[in-house]
Every structure is written in structure tokens, then in C-alpha cells.
């Protein structure tokens, strides 16, 4: 196993999304009876929640005047619950956020601007990643770590098909479609199956075409033709068995064991690369990380290295200093990574990243190597999601379903996307 060099790991300290599985719970770290209590809301499965609890227990040992209560749930119910709490005027003090929601919540005025906090040491953090926690010049979020999306393949199924994985640095989307069809013809297992409307995948596909899904002024930068081509690719793959059939895939937080990948219904999937270890441990070590196709066939590569998730603080928090102190601990204290390691991405503090690099298991090392290799390349600047990006995601979900069940053609979906998404961004603007 190739170990990451000190220079390489420090380069990575500046580049993921946690795998969300079904479950829900609430627990509180112990502290003195007169301690201030912070609430933290996150999506996780039971195992991940336990790791976060260990971090919070360490925090309260170092800060006995603060207790931390964690509420965790599956990703499918997370935003609805968060919106309900904000509407009721009782939001969590600290919470998970994703980039496509940041502008929306910042525009509402419900997130705290952290830039003036004397509890956070921003000087230790990767400046490029910190920019991706900003909206209109204010620092509303701190990245949990860095990552990039990746393809995972089940090597056992590929071997059963009598095939070898293509070179992922040069393969095209046509190569990808053909390879997955060959897997299906040889084994009856659909070669591919991923969440079609996922913004990171569509963003990368768009960038490969020399476009940006969103522009710097918060409008659409993609063409109807590119969106049409994306939906047509999936439609054509379904027709050959290369892609899982309609109704067989849902982004609903199913556990890895129960997922189409875990049941050998599909041979590959697109994931946040930081979750590779969670998948591979369940799959018995049969998985490998690969780059997405299409990186060399268009005007430019589509890859970008982004925050895995974001830590945000509620503007309405009654304990803003303590909440900011917790975020600083989760970012700048090596002890906060003892339980989660690289689960939430490569640490954005270079010194912490160097310490975390010691003793990584093989899967975590593979993720870090994957991320570092991307970060060392010249990638086009990444345009952050504007206010309204969350609604654009919802529009993609709806249109993808219409195409999936043949109620709409890919061309119609492309045209509808431009109309509906453009209006959503204008309304949010």
C-alpha cells in the first residue's frame, strides 16, 4: 500500500460527503450540571453517530463548562427537520450543511457569520476551502474536510464477467456505457446504478463540457443540450441493461447491505470518496475507487475538490461563543479526529492532517491518495451554488423521475430544466 507523503498529505489538507444511512437518535455528552448545553444536528447511521459522540465526549473533557447533545437522523428527513426547527425558532446550535443549501439559509438570515468570532482560528485552515463556506463575502460555514466524488466498482463481479477495469484516466462516457453493458450481458448484474439527479455528478458532467452549472452571478451556466445529453446517456444505458431499470434505485438512505450494490444488483455506484471505507468494509474489500469517465474527452476536466460537509452555527444560538468553540475544536484539534479519522474528509488544518495521516487503514489511505492525486492537478475554478440551488436539486429529482418512467423525453427534460431552474434561481436571487 502506497503511503501518503508528508508533502502530499499537507497538499490534501484543503479538499467530502458523509454516507447517510437510516436511523435516528439523540444523545448527550456528560458534563457538570451547570454546564451550557449545545445541540448538534447531523445525519448519520448508528455507527457514525457513536463516533461523533466520542468526539463530543473529548470536547466536554476539555471544556467541562459545556455539554453537547447530538441529534442524528437519516439524510432523507434531515432538511425537513431542520426547516421545522428554524421555523419554530428553536434551531440546533451547530449543524451539518451542504453547499447547495448554504446560500438559501444565509439569505434567510438564520446562519451566524463566523468571520468575526474570536473562538475560531481561521489562520490554520485551508483558505481555498474556506471560500467555499462563504456567501456574499460572509463566512457562514467551516468545511468538515475535503473530498471529491468517485466511482466504486465491485471487482468480484467484474472478474466474474471476465473483464478488466478500463483506464479511468482516459475512459469516455461511451466506454463506460459499453463496459457496463458487457457486465450485464455476462453476469445479469447491471453494470451501473447511481443517483441520477445528484448535483455533484451533474456539475462534473457539465464542467467536462466546458460549462458551469451555476455562474458567478447566480444564474444557470449550462445549456439545455448538455442536460439533454446527460439524461439521454442514462436512458440509452437502461435500454441495454447497463444501468439499473426504472424504480430500482432510490436515494433514500438505505444501508449498504440492503442497497442495490450490497445485494449485487449493480456492479458500480458514484459516491463521495470519503465514504469509501464504509462501503468497502461491508463489501468485504471487493471495491476499488475509480475516477468518473469523460475527463479527457471534452474541453476540460470536470473534477473539483470540495468540502465534504459544512459546520454551521445558528444565528439564534443562545450560546454563540461556545458553539464557535465547538466548531474550532472539530476543525483544529487533532483529538477531535481520533474517532472519525477521515470520515468527514481530509482535515482542512494542515498540521492536523499530518497527524491524522499516521496510522490510516488501507481504505482511508486509498481515499486520501485519490483526493491528493486530484488536488495536485490543475482543475478549473469551482463556482459555488447560489441561493436557490436546493430548489434546482429538487427540480432535477422531479425531471429525472419523469425521464426514468418515460413520461418525458430527455430533450423535454433539458428544456424544462432550463425554464424551471432559471426561474427558481431568479426567485431566490
Automatic annotation (TrEMBL):
Domain of life assignment: Bacteria
Pfam families associated with the record: SBP_bac_1 (PF01547)
Name of the molecule in the record: Extracellular solute-binding protein
Signal peptide: none
Cross-referenced PANTHER family: ARABINOSE-BINDING PROTEIN-RELATED, DIACETYLCHITOBIOSE BINDING PROTEIN DASA
